[in-house]
Amino acid sequence: MTQVEPIRPPQGAPAKNNKTNRPAKSDETRVRPVAKRAHVRKRHRFLVFSLIALLLLPLAAAVTYLYTFAEDQYASNVAFTIRQEETGSATELLGGLSALMGGSGTSNTDVLFEFIQSQEIVERVLQHVDLQEHYEQFWSTDPVFSIWPGATIEDLLWFWRRAVRVTYDRNSGLIDVQVRARDPQTAQRIAQAIVSESETMINALNEAARRETMAHAERDLQDAFTRLRTAREELAEFRARTQIVDPQADIQGRMGVLNNLQQQLAEAFIDYDLLLQITSETDPRVRQAQRRIEVIRERIAQERQTFATENITVMDTDYPRLLAQFESLQVDVQFAQQTYAAALTALDAARSNAARQNFFLATFIRPTLAQRAEYPQRAMLSMLIALFLLLGWSILALIYYSIRDRN
Predict the structure, then answer these.
(1) 177 and 117 in contact (C-beta within 8 Å)?
(2) pLDDT-based confidence at 35, cuts 50/70/90?
(3) How many CA atoms lie within 13 A of 269 on its CB side?
(4) Domain 73-222+359-384 top-level CATH class
(5) Helix (H, G, I), strand (E, B), or coil: what is residue 363?
(6) Cα separation, 368 vs 308, whole angstroms
(7) pTM of this prediction?
(8) Distance (Å, whole) CA 383 – CA 63
C-alpha cells in the first residue's frame, strides 16, 4: 500500500498565517517505498520439518500399522455378581443367630474382583485354553497386540490385564468382564473359563467359611461344657464341705424354729398375765412362768445370734458368708447353663448352614459369541494418536520459541 503525504515547506521558511499567503494546492505526492517480499527463513524450515518428523510421519506409520498389520480382535462379554441365600434355617429364625453365620457378600465381591486379575486365575485358565499359543501366533506381523514367544507367567499376567478388561461397580456389586481374542470362539472359551473358575473360588470360600464356623461352634460348645461342669463341681464341693444341701432351705427351717419360739413366748406371757390376775407374785406358779419366759427369751437370742456370728459348719462358716458363697455358685451355674444352651443352638445353626450354600455366583449375562471384530478400534486410535502427537509437537514448538526469544 502507498500513503500520500502533503508537501511540507522547507525548513527556515517563514510561516504565513493569513489566507492570502497560503500556498496553492498541488497534485504532487510522495510515495513510501514498498515493503520487501517475505522469504522463508531457517526457523520456518525447521518448524515445517519438525511438523513432518514429529507429527505426520509417526501418524502415517501408526495408521499404516493399524490398517495393514494389526489383526482383528473379537470380544466376549460376561457379567455376574455374588448373591447370598435369603432363606434362613429354622434355628436362625428361632434363635436369631444369622449374624453369627456370615456377613454380607460385599467383601466376597471384592475378593472375586482381585481374583480375576490375579496370577492364579491365569494359571487356572491355562488348563482350559493355551493362552501363550493363541496370543503369540501373530507376533511376527502384529507385535503390538501380541505377546512374545517364551513369555513367563508374569508376562502372561501383564498381557492378561490387557486382553481381559474388568469393570467393578462397588455400589451394586456387579462385575463386567470383557475378553478379547483372535477369534470369537476362543474369546467365549476364555470367558466361560473365567466364570467356571470364579464359581470354584466362591465354593472354596463357602467351604472354608463352613469349616471355620463349625470349628468355632464346636470350640465354643466345648468351652461352655467345661464351664458348666466346673460350676456344678464347685457347687457339689460346697455342699459336701458345708454338709448343707440348700442353705436357704436350712435357714427357712431355723426361721420356723424361731417363729415357734416367739409363739411360745407370747403364750407364756399370756399365762403369766392370767396367773397375776388370780394369785400373787409369791405363788410358785408365777415364778415358774417367769422362768419359762426367761428361758424362751434366751433361746430366741441364741437362735438369732446363730444367723449372724455362730459357726454352723465344719469349716467355721457363718450364715452370711454361707449365703454369699452359695448365691455366687448358683449364679455361676445359671450363667454356665445359659452359655451352654446358646452354644448348642449355635452349633445346630452351623450344621444347618453347612448343608447349604450361603454365597453363589449369579451370572446374569452369559459369555457372548461375537459375530464381528470390534477391536482394535482403528479410527479412534488414529484420532487419539493424532491428537497426542499434535499436542506434543505444539508444546515442543512453544518451548523452542520461548528459548529463542529469551536468547
Answers:
(1) no
(2) low
(3) 8
(4) alpha beta
(5) strand
(6) 88
(7) 0.64
(8) 9
Neighbours of 72 (CB within 10 A): 13
Q: Look at the block and give the residue holding cell 506434543.
A: 392
Q: How far is CA 205 from the centre of its chain?
A: 16
Q: Say which residue the cell 522547507 belongs to.
A: 10
Instruction: Give per-residue pLDDT as tens, 218-260.
Output: 899 999 999 999 988 888 888 787 777 676 666 666 667 777 8
Q: Rounded distance, CA 342 to CA 358, Å?
A: 22
Spans of all domains in the chain: 73-222+359-384, 225-352
Helix (H) or strand (E) holding 379: helix 378-406
Q: What is the mean pLDDT of residues 355-363?
A: 77
What are the DSSP calls for 121-182, one per residue?
HHHHHTTTS-HHHHHTTTTTT--TTSPPTT--HHHHHHHHHHHEEEEEETTTTEEEEEEEES
C-alpha grid cell, residue 115: 481374583
Phi, psi (rounded to 5 degrees) for 143 = -75, -20
d(CA 292, CA 39): 149
Distance CA 300, CA 278 (A): 29
